[in-house]
Structure formats: structure tokens, C-alpha cells
Write a structure and sequence with these properties.
With about 425 residues, this protein is mostly helical. It contains 17 helices and two strands. The longest helix is centred in the C-terminal third of the chain and has 29 residues, at about 390-415.
């Protein structure tokens, strides 16, 4: 028997049309109100623009050249992958100090299988992912079910898995990987649909990204209007979409005139989209925010805190393995010292991107912006020939300012109540 779904009633259609109309004519036009109303998130976007412009001037435009933009994507993609998992862990009120060692271990396992034992490249990838998931489950068990603080568990893991890396590699480096494995982090999609002096496919992907951003932004705006939440005026909304679209297309244009669309950028984009949806639209994501925001309230509300904490660390282990595959592919080998200090870069990206020290606050997109700020600063200082010690000082000061800004926001919000 066929069921015919009734069409929308005139009242429903009218309500939908009224909502769309309201979304186009509602909101404030005062930029100062908009920026101050969400200072934590808007501040990092302004900071990113300022830093990009500053280094463009200081390097005479070299930092914005097609080749350099491609190099930034290739060199810092694994840090951005780690930042996705780290921001989720931090939102949940925890920390993970072991991700650098897990990157080294997963890359080492892959290298032993592929280089030393001659297994197919994809066997190495799958083995690395399996090891990462097992490490995440190990951490998750001690944190969620044994009740040991994540700081201690992952500090122990940092030492434990670094030692296992040395054992797996017999304290020597292994290289090179086969060409197929190297393509994970160093491969490009170029010439799929042609292009005269540029890659048309890269521009097409950029245009699709702009369209997706515009549609998603309008739907979000429509939902906020329906729930009578504050939004910017429609002209400002259009201006924001046009500005972001111009940045995306400029980025795509530069890539199209270099070597095309990096495969690792596709991997990163898929992860950002998936985890953006997971954190904002799923029950698991809402529970992570609830646990980090108020553990007692989440427990009393029936949230299975242990289960959520366990899967948070399993997920972190999985993403650390993805980063391990990307890094070993990028470096074309596995080294005992691989992944050194990666955990600090990932943590810095999450905090600079707006995550709160106490948990319950943060976004995947914010972590990406924070990671890009660190990447642009590092790349710009390298182009300028700044020594490594000065780079470390600058990064430390930026992280300190970001956390101080978070503390200031909390105090300001508390005094306003």
C-alpha cells in the first residue's frame, strides 16, 4: 500500500515564506555591536586577517604566492588534524599530552610494515589507524573507567608510546615509502577537467565551497530569526558571504596556479565538515559540551559521562593516527623523534581558536583558525629568516595572550550579571 505524503498547507507555506522574508529584513547593522557581541570568535578572524596582511607586507608578498600557500597546506595539515581532536577533548574538560608520541608510533608501525616487510601501502595505513584507535581506547579506559585525570594518563602515554616507538623502529629511521603512500600528503589532483595554465577542478571545488558556505549561513540565519536570536542585518550578511567567498576563491586560484588541489587538503576538509556536524548536530557532540560545561548537571541529566569520555579519547587516538600517516607520508619515512612538540601546537591551536581552559566552549572551525594563525606565523617568520628561539618566544606569547583573553572574557561576563 502506497502512502501519499500530504503537501504543505497554505498556512505552512506562508509561515516558511514569512520566515525567509524575516531572515532577509531582520538584524542589526551596527558592526561594533556584532563584534563585541561575540568577541571571542570574531577576534580570532580579525587576528588571522591582520597576521596574514602583516606577513604579506613584511615578505613583499612572498607569503601569499601560489607555491608558499601550497607549502603551508602541506606543512601544517597534520597539526590541523590533531587540533580537531584536541579541541573536542578540551571542550569535554580534558587534555591530551600524548598525541605527538602517538603520531610517531603510528608512523613507525606503518613504516615497519610497508618499508621493512614489503606490505602494500594501504596495509600500513590501516595498521596505523588500528594502533591509534587502540591507544585511544587505552587512554579512554584509564580516564573514563579508572577515574585517573587525563593529564596524568596522557603524560604517562607520552612517555610510554615514545618508548614503544623506539622499540618498534629499533632506534633507527626507516625510509623511503612507496610512491602511493607518499601521495597521501604530497599528491595533487590536477588536470581532471582541464584548464589553460591553471587547474579548473580546483576552482570548481572552491566555487562549491563558497556555495555551501552561503547556503549553510542563510539556513543558520533563518533558524536564529525563527527563535528570535540576534543576527546581523541582511546587507551585512551578504557582505560577509561575499568577503569569505572572495578569500576562498583567492585561495583556490593560488592553488590552481601552483600544483592543483592537494589530496591532504581534501582529507582535512572532509574531517572538518564531519566533525563540525558531529559537534553541532549530534547527541554525542551536545553531551561533550554538557560534560565540559557542567559535569554535575550533565550527570544528573542522565548523560553517560564515562561512555562519552571513553569515545572522546578513542576519537583523539584515531585522529592522531591520521596525522601520523600524513606526517610519515610527508617526511617519506619514520623517525624515532617524529611528532616532537606536536601536542603543544595542537593545544595552542585549540586555545587560540577560542576553546575555554575550563571546558564547555570551543568549535572545530575555531581550532582550524587558531591552527592557521600558528601556521602563518611560523611560515612567515621562516621566510623572514627569524631564528627558531625567537619563533618559540612569539608562539608562547601568542598562546599566553589567547588564554588571558579567555579569562578576561569570563570575568567581564561574570561582572555583567
Amino acid at each position: 500500500m502506497t502512502t501519499i505524503k500530504p503537501s504543505a498547507t497554505p498556512q505552512q507555506r506562508s509561515s516558511s515564506e514569512d520566515g525567509a522574508t524575516a531572515a532577509m529584513h531582520t538584524g542589526t547593522s551596527d558592526p561594533r555591536t556584532l563584534i563585541l557581541g561575540n568577541l571571542r570568535q570574531s577576534g580570532i578572524y580579525v587576528a588571522l586577517v591582520v597576521i596574514v596582511a602583516l606577513f604579506a607586507v613584511l615578505t613583499d608578498g612572498v607569503s601569499l604566492s601560489p607555491g608558499n600557500i601550497t607549502n603551508i597546506v602541506l606543512q601544517y595539515s597534520y597539526i590541523l588534524v590533531l587540533a580537531i581532536g584536541m579541541v573536542i577533548v578540551i571542550i569535554g574538560g580534558h587534555i591530551d599530552l600524548s598525541v605527538g608520541s602517538v603520531v610517531a608510533l603510528t608512523g613507525a608501525v606503518s613504516a615497519v610494515l610497508v618499508i621493512r616487510q614489503g606490505q602494500p601501502w594501504w596495509i600500513g595505513v590501516l595498521a596505523a589507524l588500528a594502533v591509534g584507535i587502540a591507544v585511544g581506547a587505552w587512554h579512554g579506559f584509564w580516564v573514563a573507567y579508572a577515574g585517573i585525570p587525563a593529564f596524568i594518563v596522557t603524560l604517562a602515554g607520552m612517555l610510554l608510546f615514545r618508548g614503544l616507538t623506539l622499540r618498534v623502529l629499533d632506534n633507527i629511521s626507516l625510509s623511503p615509502f612507496p610512491a602511493e603512500y607518499q601521495r597521501v600528503a604530497a599528491g595533487f589532483l590536477n588536470g581532471l577537467i582541464g584548464g589553460q595554465g591553471y587547474d579548473a577542478f580546483t576552482l570548481l571545488i572552491g566555487a562549491v565551497a563558497v556555495a555551501g558556505y552561503a547556503v549553510s549561513g542563510f539556513r543558520t540565519r533563518l533558524a536564529r530569526v525563527r527563535y528570535q536570536q540576534p543576527v546581523e542585518s541582511f546587507p551585512l550578511f551578504v557582505a560577509r558571504v561575499v568577503l569569505v567567498g572572495a578569500v576562498i576563491m583567492y585561495f583556490a586560484w593560488q592553488l590552481a596556479h601552483a600544483r592543483g588541489l592537494p589530496i591532504v587538503l581534501i582529507i582535512l576538509a572532509v574531517l572538518v565538515l564531519v566533525y563540525g556536524l558531529v559537534t553541532r548536530r549530534t547527541v554525542f557532540g551536545r553531551r561533550v559540551y554538557a560534560i565540559g560545561g557542567n559535569l554535575s548537571a550533565a550527570t544528573l541529566s542522565g548523560v553517560k559521562v564515562r561512555t562519552v569520555n571513553f569515545w572522546m579519547f578513542v576519537n583523539m587516538g584515531f585522529l592522531a593516527a591520521v596525522a601520523g600517516v600524513i606526517y610519515s607520508s610527508r617526511s617519506n619515512g619514520a623517525q624515532p623523534a617524529a611528532g616532537n612538540m606536536f601536542e603543544l601546537d595542537a593545544i595552542a591551536a585549540a586555545f587560540i581558536g577560542g576553546a575555554a581552559v575550563t571546558g564547555g566552549v570551543g568549535t572545530v572551525v575555531g581550532a582550524m583558525v587558531g591552527g592557521l594563525i600558528m601556521a602563518v606565523m611560523s611560515n612567515g617568520m621562516q621566510l623572514m629568516g627569524v631564528d627558531q628561539s625567537t619563533q618559540s618566544v612569539v608562539k608562547g606569547l601568542v598562546l599566553l595572550v589567547a588564554v588571558a583573553f579567555d579569562v578576561y572574557n569570563k570575568r567581564r561576563a561574570g561582572s555583567a550579571r
